[in-house]
Amino acid sequence: MLKTLDDSLKVIRMFTRSRPEWGGRELAQEMKLDHAKIYRILETFESNNFIRKDPVTKKYSLGLAAWELGMNMYNSLNLKQIIHPVLEELFKQTGESVFLTLLDKDQAVTFEAIEPDNKVKFSVSVGSRAPLYVGASYRSILAFMPDDFVENYLNTYELKQYTEKTKTNPDELRAELQVIRENGWGMSEGEYTPDIIAIAVPLFQQDRIIGSLTVSGPNYRMSQKKINESIPILKQARDELADMMEKYQLKIRL
């Protein structure tokens, strides 16, 4: 390891969102490094526009080169590559199909999916759309929409029967949405795809509902025991996605 380079990288990482400015001496004291060395590092970064020095306060902050580097990295991020490992781990832990669904106005779109090789044929696939009242994936979004949106939706949207188990009664749906709000997750059986049980949790960004995360499988495999075991795993994966969105400042709404 190159000691000077290592120290230099540690210096630039000291400029954070919570502490965007540093004086040379206070930075040296904080890092417990020689003052002269800190100033040499700062001057080198400054000459390359990675750090700028305020002519009045004499404090240092990140420069345009650091911003450009960050933007290059941000623009090169492939969103699906970032979130895929979380979905892959959820798939490995449950052994069942995993879907990330995003809200788009008054519908939901399947944004990403991981399914077993010996999968049961689903009625949904990446890019497919579905109404917000049918099944756990979609109702887990609708349940956290504003009250006036929900009422307008249930009163005006054509509540189509996809299978014999599709819930289309507005009062029954209102009761189901209340259960989802209370529990923090929803479940459905055979409402959109026959013989499939789905459990889903809502996905938020800055306290705004943007989608849901779902685990689903054939009813002969989705026992009550497996459902109970899958719910905390599903919530943990959802929280990891939310943390990742905040960390990378990702906006994955459509």
What does this structure look like?
This protein has helices at residues 3-12, 24-31, 35-47, 64-76, 79-94, 136-142, 147-156, 170-183, 224-248; strands at residues 51-53, 60-62, 97-104, 107-114, 129-131, 186-189, 196-205, 208-218. The strands form two sheets. The chain has a six-stranded antiparallel beta sheet, sandwiched between helices. The protein has nine helices and eight strands. β3 and β4 form a beta hairpin.
User: What is the SS-derived class?
Assistant: alpha+beta
Note the gap between the termini. 44 Å
**DSSP strand tally:** 8
- Proportion of β residues? 15-25%
The number of helical runs is 9
Query: How large, in whole angstroms, is the Cα Rg?
Result: 25 Å
Order of helices and strands: HHHEEHHEEEHHHEEEH
Unreliable stretches, pLDDT < 50, 5 or more residues? none
How many strands, what sense, and barrel or not for the largest sheet?
A: 6 strands, antiparallel
The shape is elongated
Strand order, largest beta sheet: 5-4-3-8-7-6
Classify the helix fraction into a percent range: 40-55%
Task: Give the overall average pLDDT.
Answer: 89
Secondary structure elements and their pairing?
Elements: H1 3-12, H2 24-31, H3 35-47, E1 51-53, E2 60-62, H4 64-76, H5 79-94, E3 97-104, E4 107-114, E5 129-131, H6 136-142, H7 147-156, H8 170-183, E6 186-189, E7 196-205, E8 208-218, H9 224-248
Helix pairs in contact: 1-3, 2-3, 5-9
